Amino acid sequence: MRHSLKYFSLFCITLFTLSSCERKRECEDAICTMNFASHSLRIEDGSGQVPVLDKVDVHVGSDYVFSATQNAQDPFYYIIADDTWITSVGKNVERYTEVWIYRQGNIVSKVPFQFKTDCCHVEYVSGTDKVIIP
């Protein structure tokens, strides 16, 4: 009985070790393209103008907060997700995300999104492309 318990324990430890190694290697053979994926959100005020905002934050679950970057060529757009996420958020995950828009010190809008990552890129799953704030 002691020997069978010992062998069973060794088997479980070996199985766990091998499975955790497989998880670490899941992206080892991935060939990533040079394309840089990102997703933007258009934010405008009620009159169709570029609003003056304090900041735009991207809350990924309750784990991460990123600052959205305003697009230099088109100030209506804020980059709310891009491939740099993968190092923080993880590979091969799908995450619920909220964009918090601040104006005059207050949150004026919370916009829900769903994103997923593979080994190389972030991909938009669901949400809106445009927000009109008061």
Structure description:
By secondary structure, the chain is an alpha+beta fold. The chain has a single domain, classed as Immunoglobulin-like. Helices cover 22% and strands 43% of the residues. The protein is built from 2 helices and 9 strands. The chain has helices at 2-25, 85-89; strands at residues 38-45, 55-60, 64-67, 69-70, 77-82, 94-103, 106-117, 122-127, 130-133. The protein has a 5-stranded antiparallel β-sheet. Strands 4-5-1-9 form a 4-stranded mixed β-sheet, with no helix packed on it. Strand 7 (106-117) and strand 8 form a beta hairpin. The radius of gyration is 21 Å and the shape is elongated. Mean pLDDT is 85; it is low at 14-23.
- Can you count the beta strands? 9
Shape: elongated
The end-to-end distance, rounded to whole angstroms, is 72 Å
The amount of helix comes to: 10-25%
Q: Which residue ranges are poorly predicted, with pLDDT under 50 across at least 5 consecutive positions?
A: 14-23
Q: Strand sequence of the main sheet, in spatial order?
A: 3-2-6-7-8
